Amino acid sequence: MFNYAPVSDTRKADYGSAFLKSHSVSGAVAKVWSDRSCSKGQQLFEDYGDNRDLIYLMNHGFIPEHNPFSSVPVELAATSSLSEGSVEIREKLVAIIAPQKTVELTANLEILSEEGTTHFHALLRVRDASAADLKRCEHSKSADKVNTCLSNVPIRPESIVDELKAKLASYPTTLEFDTELLRSVKGQPHTAIAIRYRISQKRTLSKLIESLAAPTDSSDLHSLVTNFNRWVEKHRESFPQNKLRAVVDPVMRIGVVASAPIAAEEVYISVHEDILISAANAGKDPELSTVINDLKKRFGSSDDFHSVLFMLLHERSKKSESLWAPYINILPTDMSHNPVMFSKNQLDLLKGSSILPRIQSRIATIRSKFEKVKSLVFEYYPLLSWVTFDDYLWAHLIIDSRSIWWNGKRHLVPLLDLINCAEVTPSMRVHATELNKQTRVAETKAALPFAVGEQVFENYGQPNHIYFLYHGFVLQPNSHDCVSLEMDSWLDEGNTVECVTASNVPVRLTSALKSKFPNDSVHSTLAKIAKKALAGYHDTITAEGATEKQIATFLESEKQILRELIAVNNELEHRSKDEL
User: How far apart are CA 542 and CA 553, in angstroms?
Assistant: First the structure.
């Protein structure tokens, strides 16, 4: 009875081992463990395993809306002409590696199984190998042996883009045509599932092409940033005050530096509302406004968040034809730093922290929102019918992590949203952007002076659990940092007390502690609660990669606050006893 939904988009295929971790059979008893958190009243899904869509089509009779293991068979053509003898050797090696002469590729090559990756790399090397290389490796008996023997031949996944484009073009219909066709075959389940399978294959191919053709090195990013700066200059009337220039940052990917001296409290960047990706501009778009106005008629109100999301996705789909193309091109596409994208193993490292249930709830909420919007919007309006869960998730995370707020509304603000966060001095005030009602320009004043060429920072003024949850980074130092404490159900207003530090204990917590434990001091009880919370964390985390390092940094920031809370309250308890 459990419907399918993947638990993670980033775990590697491993022949069903992930499925077996949550299912077991002992004698006549079958046990099933939930592979994700689920709130009361929400539909509970299961991840069926590392299956391609063909398995679901042939054995289950459905095609998942979103399946990270959806794959396409690709035959790799040779890249160089060889003598007849060398061609025979190449064909012999290809037959050893892949008897069917094809390799199954997912849109994200990082999640291929170890065996799949080995075979793919071996085929790439064989297709690019010289006659001398092939002759030397003629007697290799496996993909592993081929990779070892041809280790001098570079692995170039991007070299197959033309073949993938040719394969996509070989279909007699386009993705847009199939999406429209699917709407017209309601009541014809067999035809519908065949079309859904064809759509899934085309989407996988399209995303694979996009990922392999995307810029991957810093020089390409430099080009994109240069194009963006030129775009800002071209539209200088929309940036009436601008003392900034975007640059590539080796740590934070992109940042901004001062292009002219910036004085404290002067307006150093102003952006006209006509260049924003916003709910207001979404309502002015000739195509998108039809959708938004119709949604208002159907439901009686507008949804500003989704208006921004629809505009972002609509402009992204227009590619170079979009006014905002240079801005959209520098937005990150790899969101693996965001906790929503963490693997199960990475999430497990967060056990003990109150952030874990928040991340799990956020994942479930985004999935639930997508399913609702899909039925009400994406399956209803042809303009947005191409949007998949991957597209929706990307746009959702972009808006959550980059929005600039004023007048109670969120906006994507080119250039301003490239300013990185830092607490340069302990007294650095929190960022604020205000709309000038006369000029319709959003103005930001500098919290500190910055010299020409110096990187400009803003202080977002949030605790690290907010930065980590929505942005995927941890700020150090951070005078706004605090920890949330999970309590028992005796608290009147929920079980979580937000933002506790040694110097800031909310009144509602101290009042509740006095009421619940009248015979104990508040200080001793607080110290006990903090000790209990501290004991729930992992002792140590092996920082294998950038994500694990970020998790370790975040957890250490929380644990340090708890240690301070324990120390300060123990000291206050001792003082109160001494005074007695």
Answer: 11
Q: First vs last Cα of the chain: how many Å apart?
A: 64
421: amino acid identity, one letter: C
Tell me, rounded to whole angstroms, the distance of Cα 379 from its chain centroid. 24
Q: Return the HEC string of 244-280.
A: EEEEEECCCEEEEEECCCECCCCEEEEEEHHHCEEHH
The pLDDT value given to residue 474: 95
Q: What ranges in 270-334 are assigned the alpha helix state H?
A: 279-282, 288-299, 304-317, 325-328
Task: Report which of 113, 39, 67, 94 is spatially closest to residue 390, judged by C-alpha positions.
Answer: 67
**Structural contact between residues 113 and 103, judged by C-beta atoms closer than 8 angstroms:** no
Query: Can you state the percent helix, strand and coil of the chain, rounding each to 5?
Result: 50, 15, 40
The whole-angstrom separation of Cα 100 and Cα 107 is 20
- Residues for the chain: how many in total? 580
- SS3 (DSSP) at 436: strand
d(CA 551, CA 554): 5
Residue 393, pLDDT score: 96
User: Residue 217's pLDDT is what?
Assistant: 45
**10 Å Cβ neighbour count for 330?**
20
Question: Distance between CA atoms of 178 and 207, rounded to whole angstroms?
Answer: 17
Q: CA dist 317 to 1, 156, 285, 321, 397, Å?
A: 36, 27, 14, 9, 17
The Cα 193–Cα 56 span in angstroms is: 11
Distances (CA, A) of 358 to 19, 470, 488, 554: 24, 11, 17, 15
Other residues' Cβ atoms within 10 Å of the Cβ of residue 437: 8
Q: Which residues of the chain have pLDDT under 50?
A: 216-219, 490
pLDDT digits (tens, 9 = 90+) for 171-194: 999 888 888 888 888 889 899 999
Tokens (6 digits) for 487:
């309590």
Count of CA atoms in the C-beta half-sphere (13 A) of 217: 2
CA separation for the pair 452, 243 (Å, rounded): 9
Query: Can you tell me the distance from the alpha carbon of 168 to that of 99, in angstroms, rounded to the nearest whole number?
Result: 23
The answer, yes or no, to whether the previous bond of 477 is cis (omega within 30 of 0) is yes
All residues at 6 or more sequence positions from 485 whose CB lies less than 8 Å from its CB, including other chains: 354, 496, 497, 500, 509, 529, 530, 533
Alpha carbons 424 and 410: distance in angstroms, whole number: 25
pLDDT in tens, 546-570: 888 899 999 999 999 999 999 999 9
Please state, in angstroms and rounded to a whole number, the distance separating the CA atoms of residues 181 and 184: 5
Distance, CA of 223 to chain centre: 23
Question: Which runs of E-coded beta strand occur in 367-471?
Answer: 404-406, 409-412, 420-421, 433-436, 441-445, 457-458
Closest-CA residue to 573 (of 528, 522, 499, 536): 522
Residues 79/128, Cβ–Cβ less than 8 Å: yes
CB-side neighbour CA atoms (13 Å) of 523: 13
